[in-house]
Amino acid sequence: MTLLADVVEASTEVAETSARSRKIAILAELLARLERDEVPVAVGLLAGSPRQGRIGIGYSALSALQQAPAAEPSLTIADLDRAITAVQETTGSGSSAARRELLT
């Protein structure tokens, strides 16, 4: 399983380099390390378009969370994908609190 931190690191490296060939190499290296089922998830995250589309969570909802960052990276892209799906599927009465809990 690939850590989300690896995708973030690759994205940061791509943003920091101007050489198109290096950008391609960074992305190719990342994609080669992914498991087959992780590829569409990672590509969506890198493109800024998760496979679930818009889920109704904005910056204000995320910035209001009172959660300290993890000491060490442990969140996988599969974990994030499942969490985004769970948030998307949480609707109805009490959904705001349930979504907040999922995000935390």
Please describe the structure with a list of short key phrases separated by commas or semicolons.
mainly alpha, 6 helices
What does this structure look like?
- The chain is built from 6 helices and no strands.
- It is mainly α.
- The protein has one domain.
- Helix 1 packs antiparallel against helix 2 (20-33).
- The longest helix is centred in the first third of the chain and has 14 residues, at 20-33.
- It is elongated, with a radius of gyration of 15 Å.
- The two termini are 21 Å apart.
SSE layout and pairing:
Blueprint: H1 4-16, H2 20-33, H3 39-46, H4 59-63, H5 77-89, H6 95-103
Helix pairs in contact: 1-2
Question: What's the short version?
Answer:
With 104 residues, the protein is mainly alpha-helical. Helix content is 60%, strand content 0%.
